[in-house]
Amino acid sequence: MQVKRIHEYKRQLLNVLHVIHLYNCIKKGDADRVPRCVLIGGKAAPGYRMAKKTIKLINNVAQVINSDPEVGDKLTLLFLPDYRVSAMEKICPGADLSEQISTAGKEASGTGNMKLMMNGAITIGTLDGANIEIREEVGDENFFLFGLTEEQIEARRAHYDPLEMIDQDEDLQRVMHLLESGYFNQFEPGIFDDLINSIKSPHDPWMTIADFRSFVDAQKRVEDAYRDKDHWTKMSILNCANSGKFSTDRTIGEYNRDIWKLEPQPVKGE
Length: 270
Ligand SMILES: *Cc1c(COP(=O)(O)O)cnc(C)c1O
Prior knowledge:
Rossmann fold; 6 strands
């Protein structure tokens, strides 16, 4: 489950690359995968072309995968339109896996990550924003960590070479080949070129390609954990039970102590 505003730093594209990788695994006859439904939802700002294109890509990839008889119910991709609080009220309790996969150093905090944890979803995430505190609270064994740290991201920028990384990784090569061959836009040639070029650029600020291998490996660990239902259930309960730190009372109390320094006032009429 990845529901949040569509933004390049939140890396919905990394999620799509993984879905295409799973599709390739199924097409290769790689049996014994855990069936998945990947749901991505969120709003794009009206003038944000790359975000609108990302929604278009999710829908196009979904159409190909969901109508491929070889895939069947092994893999489903869905884009949920009109993401809003009333949708989140239903999504949260229905989610198994919370995807919090932003580029390290870019997410101020996040609150979707907390809402999903509180409702028993397990997080796959980078060391970014409140994911760091969620992992501290729940313990590393109940959190699927992946990706470069903020320090590693900044160190890598000077010599980031995504083309070399694609060249070194057969799975990523296959994913990029499908995308670039127009497999998901057969009647709309070139429409995803700007998205594809953005992740292949050595100046990509979000370094999506840099975290692909680590993300795919972490998703494999998710699959292995999901097969053991008692283990997964225990992890889920521990996520819910350790979410107390993220209460509004604690947060607002701390803000008041450190920043606002206000006195509590009695409520009139009580
Ligand atoms: C929680 C929530 C957000 C914030 O999600 P993040 O994952 O923290 O970015 C945005 N929109 C809606 C409707 C929400 O419920």
